[in-house]
Design brief:
alpha/beta; Rossmann fold; globular
């Protein structure tokens, strides 16, 4: 995992901890977590276990501990520093697959750091561990051009089109909107027009 050496304390301080340079605040992140859990409740999706791929500084972990009592949380990271600081499992999603399945898998800000040969295996591993719901956030070429603040966003990534990720994700999942995907291996609780064709 030497290729992930740059994910040290300084990286996480700049992009996640410092109020001047972080890309998202804990308050902003809480809105996302509230949305995902509300979406699950609305669709009567059981939420007993969460796997957080690339757990970073533990924003999902803290929100779940405070707001989703009884939900089992597992965080993984390639960063030795974050594993030591937060107790996450040291895992590379392109090369690791747990036997357990999870009600929600979060893969936020991870796939854009993987080289091309690792993206499809990473998504296949996520699919194999998914009981249903997956949240994916990845920076694309269009995002960098149209949406991202260049002063706050880490641009040292593999820049790809959204269609690249959609194509690989669609092999395993059905898109249900706002970054949420549903495993094709699990019966979907959604009405026809609530999912992408």
């Amino acid at each position: 995992m030497d290729r992930f050496r740059r994910f040290d304390e300084a990286y996480y301080h700049r992009f996640y901890e410092s109020p001047k340079t972080r890309v998202v605040s804990p308050e902003e992140h809480a809105h996302l977590a509230e949305f995902v859990f509300a979406f699950a409740r609305h669709n009567r999706i059981e939420m007993k276990s969460v796997l957080d791929i690339g757990a970073g500084i533990g924003l999902w972990q803290r929100w779940i501990e405070q707001n989703a009592k009884g939900v089992t949380y597992v965080g993984t990271e390639v960063s030795q520093a974050m594993c030591k600081k937060h107790g996450f499992q040291h895992r590379d999603i392109a090369r690791w697959r747990d036997r357990k399945k999870h009600d929600l898998i979060v893969c936020q800000g991870v796939l854009q750091y993987l080289p091309d040969p690792d993206v499809a295996p990473a998504i296949a591993n996520i699919a194999a561990m998914s009981r249903g719901l997956v949240y994916v956030e990845v920076t694309t070429r269009a995002d960098l051009r149209d949406r991202c603040d260049p002063n706050l966003t880490d641009t040292d990534i593999f820049v790809r089109n959204g269609s690249y990720y959609r194509g690989i994700l669609a092999k395993h999942f059905v898109f249900v909107g706002c970054g949420l995907w549903w495993s094709k291996e699990t019966e979907a609780p959604f009405y026809e027009l609530e999912v992408a064709g």
